[in-house]
Amino acid sequence: MKIKVKKSFTLFSIVLFISLIFIAFVLNSCESKKPAKGFEDEIYVVADSVEYEQMRESLQLVLEKEISTPQPEKLFTLKRINLSQLDNNERAKNLIIAAPLNSGSQTSKYINAVVDSSVKSKLETDSSFVVYKYDLWAKNQIVVVLSAPTVQELNHKILQNSDNLLYAFQKESDERLFSNLYNPHYEQKKIEGKFLKDYGWVIYVQADYVVALNKPEDKFIWLRRSPGSDMERWIFIHWIDNATPDYLTQDSIKVIRNRLTKKFYQTMDDSSYVVVAANDFVVKEVNLNGKYALFTQGLWELNIKGMGGPFVNYFFYDEKQQRIYMIDGSVYAPKYYKRNLIQQMDVTLQSFRTEAELSKERKEDLLDAVKD
Questions:
Q1: Of 45, 160, 152, 169, whose CA–CA distance to 107 is shortest?
Q2: Which CATH fold would you assign to the domain 42-180?
Q3: Which of 65-68's residues contact partners 24+ apart within 8 Å by CB, and which partners?
Q4: What whole-number distance in Å separates Cα of residue 233 and Cα of residue 345?
Q5: How far apart are the C-alpha atoms of 92 and 95, rounded to whole Å?
Q6: DSSP letter for each residue of 252-316
Q7: Which residue among 141, 275, 331, 348 is least crowded, i.e. fewest CB within 10 A of its CB?
Q8: pLDDT of 286 over the 50 cut
Q9: The pLDDT of residue 25
Q10: pTM of the model
Q11: Fold of 185-371
Q12: pLDDT by residue (tens digit) across 21-60?
């Protein structure tokens, strides 16, 4: 009896030891992965040249959407590579591996080799099934596998899943960008703590932003970066107390924004002011940190013309505070491409939190900064 127990214990010990070794190996492998590399707006597509031409239009329609800044710029740019080039590009930030399942191409054979039978079955039968892999070969990487029985069905799948595909790449890109933007050593916690103490909300303030206007009577804060330069960025936060969700309409966005910019976004001689440009004003419903919000991407200009640029805007209701918030970011950079700049503004706006959304430690940290 003792011998059996001893053997059982020994076997258990061996299994436990092997399990611990395996777990340690997995954890070490995850930690040892290098960061993904490349441009944020570039997506590598691993595909056979002939098959790519058959699906290129669908992929471009979904992922190469244009935004006006005011010159047209693409959200993402596609770059096709052969399967033989994957080893040299496996750390790319954004990757798509695409081919029909049974075409016999090298990419098709690769997909069949790397997916298990259950995944292959879903790729064959489910027109909404797409494989999303994160941190596969590098940290903060997204790899998407697109496949279907035929090229025609694959094109249909790409178009049917257009919103989800674009959202997946944008979300991962935003998370990468915020991790690069956020640096506690360059964070102005004193300003953030003052906003939290005085107004009950906080937004990430980088070191090179200044508080241009603090108007509690108007419930308006204006943050500026590089004022007077050829690459300015502006953020404003405005709120309405004792409000209801009835304010959340597309018309309200233009009316409220124009009222605020007419009063606060004026030229030095007060001869002109900023307004929403008539064209390129797109509003959609989004989830902002768990809240329903209206997201606007548009163009601003002076009422006398002559200068302008892109802006992004979130308009939402906070039930606990019974407040309507409008948070807005604008870019003025006439000599530069502005796609990445406006994405930085968007990511910064997404850092907005009300007091109730902060952890106890985060609140204490920010409020302590005000005391120093």
A1: 45
A2: Chitobiase; domain 2 (3.30.379)
A3: 65/166, 67/297, 67/310, 67/339, 67/342, 68/279, 68/280, 68/299, 68/310
A4: 8
A5: 7
A6: HHHHHHHHHHHHHSB-TTSS-BEEE-SS--EEEEEEETTEEEEEEEEEEEETT-S-EEEEEEEEE
A7: 275
A8: yes
A9: 41
A10: 0.85
A11: Protein Transport Mog1p; Chain A (3.40.1000)
A12: 444 444 444 458 999 999 999 999 999 999 999 999 999 9
Report pLDDT digits (tens) over 5-26: 344 444 444 444 444 444 444 4
3-state class percentages of the chain: helix first, strand second, coil last, to nearest 5: 45, 30, 30
> Which structure tokens are listed for 55?
């699906």
208 has pLDDT over 80: yes
Q: What pLDDT digit, counting tens, does each position of 231-252 carry?
A: 999 999 999 999 999 989 999 9
DSSP character string of 331-355: EE-TTS--HHHHHHHHHHHTT-EEG
Distance CA 292, CA 318 (A): 9
> Tokens 């979130």, residue?
314
Query: Where along the chain do the CATH 3.30.379 domains lie?
Result: 42-180
